[in-house]
Amino acid sequence: MDAREYRSILGRFVTGVTVMTVQTADGQRAGVTANSFNTVSLDPPLILWSLALKAPSLTLFRQSDHFGVNILAEHQQDVAMSFARPAEDKFAGVDTLHGDHGMPLISGAMAHLECRVAHRYPGGDHEIIVGEILRMTSSEATPLVFHAGNFAKVA
Ligand SMILES: Cc1cc2nc3c(=O)[nH]c(=O)nc-3n(C[C@H](O)[C@H](O)[C@H](O)COP(=O)(O)O)c2cc1C
């Protein structure tokens, strides 16, 4: 298996862009840009995403039974970029709302899903996190798109 070919082929699968957010009981927050997000089940309403085992934020995502999914809007490319690299406080300068289940939710996102962790599975060099949606809200905003390593717009 050639890693470059894997990235090149699978990177051309068009996705939206999310930032997964978490806040632990002692108030520590983490956020990770993720395009591994996908739907799993309608009844119960399940979604999944995967987080790299080497990601520093994994520790905080493992400490919480809940997480937030922020499906980014077209104008939030800068938000996608700032949550896509390790930083002391990625939330500095980012407007957030407080979800019903204690998760920080990013203002202006196309949609927010507040989830309870339903399952965690090993997934090679990633951890697969399956969440049950407890609450969701959305706006009319157009979603941000990711394709072949670049952000793109819905035509
Ligand atoms: C568009 C895009 C999608 C990404 N999707 C994922 C993903 O699904 N899972 C993942 O582990 N990292 C993904 N990353 C990389 C993480 O955002 C990046 O490693 C980030 O630094 C992780 O947060 P941390 O360093 O605070 O742990 C993606 C990056 C970009 C730009």
From TrEMBL:
<protein>
    <submittedName>
        <fullName>Flavin reductase family protein</fullName>
    </submittedName>
</protein>
<dbReference type="InterPro" id="IPR012349">
    <property type="entry name" value="Split_barrel_FMN-bd"/>
</dbReference>
<dbReference type="InterPro" id="IPR050268">
    <property type="entry name" value="NADH-dep_flavin_reductase"/>
</dbReference>
<dbReference type="InterPro" id="IPR002563">
    <property type="entry name" value="Flavin_Rdtase-like_dom"/>
</dbReference>
<feature type="domain" description="Flavin reductase like">
    <location>
        <begin position="10"/>
        <end position="153"/>
    </location>
</feature>
<dbReference type="GO" id="GO:0042602">
    <property type="term" value="F:riboflavin reductase (NADPH) activity"/>
</dbReference>
<keyword id="KW-0560">Oxidoreductase</keyword>
<dbReference type="GO" id="GO:0010181">
    <property type="term" value="F:FMN binding"/>
</dbReference>
<dbReference type="Pfam" id="PF01613">
    <property type="entry name" value="Flavin_Reduct"/>
</dbReference>
<comment type="similarity">
    <text>Belongs to the non-flavoprotein flavin reductase family.</text>
</comment>
